[in-house]
Amino acid sequence: MKVAATSAILAGTAVRAASAAQVLADFKLTNAHSYTQDTWKTDMQAAKDSGIDGFALVAVPPNCQSQDLNWQLDRIEDAFAVAAQQQFLIAPAFDMSYNTHSANCPTGKAWNVTFMAQLISNAYSKSAGLRWNDKTLVLTHEGDSYGDGYFGQLKALLANSPAVIAPSFSSVENAVATNKSSSDQQAADAISQFTNIDGYFNGYSLPHDTRADNVSYVDAAFQRALKKAGRPGPFVMGVAPWQFQDLTSDTAAVEYGDYAWFNRWNDVFNMQPDLVNILTWNDYASSNYIRDVPQENGSKPGSVDLGEQGNYVYGMNHTAWRTVASYYIDAYKYQSMPWIVHNNLVYWYRTHKKNATCSGGMGPGGAGIKNWDLVEDALFVWVGVRTTLDFEIFWGTSGQNNSPRKDTPKLTFTSNNTTPVVYKLPFPTDFPASADEKIYPQVVANHDTRIAYSKYNNVAVTAECKWENFNAAVEEMPPDFDDVVKSHH
């Protein structure tokens, strides 16, 4: 069947010099225990190759935990040392969802201003520390429960190493999103209550518990609120590709993000925020990572003990999403949608239908996946191909060869676009025909013509599953696809 494309939005207004635009990626320090300087180098180079300028190193309180997490300080030092060599940037960030604790907490608070000030001052002294208006940029996840006075105390300790603080308050963001008609007032009220913050980091990059393809009105509300309050900024816009978690001891929920990685980057281009923060580089538990998945049961530097979350992370690589990001990062930085130079085709999908029977997962007590009905049973295709090619994408019965499933829906289109487009291919309506059936996405370019480039070796979609998994498998054409296409045109 022929499916209409969703075109990239080209409108946008330049609001500042292109050189000021920078893109960060949230880096969860708790997943860096085994990192060496070589691991940092590999990660930073991979990020740079995608156009990412730096990491926001998200620390958790080193004390007040069941384990001593002071090793984070050593990883921070290693990160700064390598970043200086790599011409990469580091911003200190804090997970302030940790609030009151009773064990190993002298003040009863998980964070204390003295410790945070030391980390921020350290960043100020480093050549790789990210600055905004010659001050250290500080991001937080949450922190409103600590109160405005806490941020005032923090800034008082930073008189000799000044910082700008841009927090993200999820409860405020949810209120702004839920009350769309009064979103400006909701955001303005929140900013006015926190006189000691300078900017805002909007982490509301995917709709919460609802289906929506655009949530940029939340960003716009905070942008206007900062301007109205006369705050220097920056306004930091969060961009996430996906959101899913399935832990038997915690939560099991998915958010609607089928088109998010495409739509959100177009929102970035149109809104031109001061900075962008990708959510995330390596938060495996939330399924929104774009880093390579660590080796299963590995012991080499960079390995992570994923525990239960490995059930929905191992085998689900997301690195192809960096291919998509690199195009839009250029568009954001140069305030112009560039013509496609490198031919790429990226696609993502879930590995079982949303009503599949699974033997594990489904959250505490097997209660099921929250929001399971919001997502589509489909494959989504991002096409960045400048050359004229006829594509056919369908569901096959093998990951090794061209083997169309009987009555499979087919997506056919001809590429030759100056900017990328997105298509959709539904799962077969009669899938699964049996409990052990597997199907594979199959991509054929210019079949039976002088170019016949195919890809079959994809992650399978299965009828049943060992663990309820709403994470995405993300695939792309092999590295030589661009060379082969260009050699024939």
Automatic annotation (TrEMBL):
Coiled coil (UniProt feature): none
Signal peptide: 1-20
Keyword check for Ion transport: no
Alphabetically ordered keywords of this record: Hydrolase, Signal
InterPro entries the record matches: Glyco_hydro_71
Keyword Nucleotide-binding: no
Pfam families: Glyco_hydro_71
CDD domains (UniProt xref): GH71
A GO MF term: hydrolase activity
UniProt name for this protein: Glycosyl hydrolase family 71-domain-containing protein
